Amino acid sequence: MRILIATDAWSPQVNGVVRTLKATVAQLRASGEEVEVVEPGQFRTIACPTYPEIRLSVRPYRALLQRVDAFAPDVLHVATEGPLGLAARRIAQRMGVPLTTAYHTRFPEYVKARFGVPLAWTYAYLRWFHGAARVTLVPTPVVRADLAARGFARLALWSRGVDTGIFHPREGRRLEGTPPIFLYVGRVAVEKNVEAFLRLDLPGTKWVVGEGPDLERIRRAYPEARFLGVLTQDRLAEVYSGADVFVFPSRTDTFGLVLIEALACGCPVAAYPVTGPLDVLGDAAAGALDEDLRTACLAALRIPRHNAVTHARQYTWERATEQFLQHVRHAVSETAADDSRAAASSP
After folding, report:
1. 186-230: per-residue pLDDT in tens?
2. Backbone angles phi, psi at 269, to 5 degrees
C-alpha cells in the first residue's frame, strides 16, 4: 500500500507526535508498505506565534499537490490540523483519495491556555476538519468518548508503543542531588502545567528535562530545581532510570508517550487522574494517581520498579502500527466500495 502522511509536526521538533509518527513510519516501511512523509521542512515556513521553534508552512497547496500527484497514494493520512494538514485535506477531497486523520493532542485546550480562544470555537473547527475523513484515529478510549460527546463521528483507536531496545532500566545510573529524585520530561509550556510539580513541597531533588517557551521564566522562578535541555533517546533512558518518580502534571494530554517511556525504564509515575494517565495506568500498580499531586508523588515512591517495567511491556509499536494499518486499509476498501456503487448507479 502507498501511504502519504502529511504532518505539521516533524524534526527538529521533539514531542510525542513526532516520535509516534517516526516510529510508525519505520514500522510501516519494515513491513513492506511504501510511505511518503510531507512535513514543514520541505516548504517555505514561518515561526509559530509564541512557539518560534515550531515552523508553519506558508501556502503549501500547489507544491503539496505536485507531491501527492507524483506519489499517487492509495490513502492520504493527515496527522495534524495545521497549514499542511489543511492543504492535504483539500487535496484528498479534490483527487478522491481516501482520507484518514488523527487527533493527537488536546489542541482546543492548548489554544485556550495560550491565547484565551473559547473551546467551542476550536472544537467547531476540528469537527469540520475531521468530518471529511473516513476515520479519525484517537489514542485512548477516554479521548474517543470525549470527542464523541462533542459531536465527532467515525472515531477509532490507535494506541502507542515504546522501544524497549532503548527504553529499559539502566543499572547504576542516578541523577545528582539529594534523594529522592522527582523527574519531569516534556515541553516547558503553560499547557503542560509544569509549575504544579515545581510548586510541590517534596523531599529530595526535582529535575526538569525539555525546552519550551516558558523555560527561562520557570528556571528563574524555581532556582532550586535542576534543568536539562532536549536529550537523545539513549540519554533520556538513562535519566528515567536515574529518577525515583516520574511526575506527569499535565491535565490536557491525550496519551503522554513519556509515561510509557518512564515506566519501561523502571520509573513509577505520579499524575493526576485524568485522560492520559488514566488510560495508560488504569488500576495497574505501576503508578499513583491523585488529585493531590504531592500525595501521588509520595505514594509512587513505594512502588516497586519492576511493576513499572512489567506494565510498559504491553505497549509495542508493532501492535500500534497494526492498528493504524487496519484502519487505513478499511478506509481504502470503503472508498472503493462507494466508488463501485456510484459507478453502478450512474446512467
Report:
1. 999 888 999 999 999 999 999 999 999 899 999 999 999 999 989
2. -110, 140
C-alpha cell of residue 332: 481504502
Nearest to 97 by CA among 70, 72, 127, 66: 72
CA distances from 183 to 214, 270, 312 (A): 17, 10, 18
Q: Where are the beta strands (DSSP E) in the chain?
A: 2-6, 34-38, 45-48, 51-57, 75-78, 99-102, 135-138, 155-157, 181-185, 205-209, 226-228, 245-248, 269-271, 287-289
pLDDT digits (tens, 9 = 90+) for 5-51: 999 999 888 888 999 999 999 999 999 999 999 999 999 999 887 77
Which one-letter amino acid corresponds to residue 83? P
Whether omega before 268 lies within 30 degrees of 0, making that bond cis, reads: no
Query: What per-residue confidence (pLDDT) applies to 347?
Result: 64
Domains (range + CATH), the chain = 2-161+317-345 (3.40.50.2000), 181-312 (3.40.50.2000)
Tell me which residue has cell 503553560.
190
Residues sharing a CB contact under 8 Å with residue 273, sequence separation 6 or more, in sequence order: 289, 290, 291
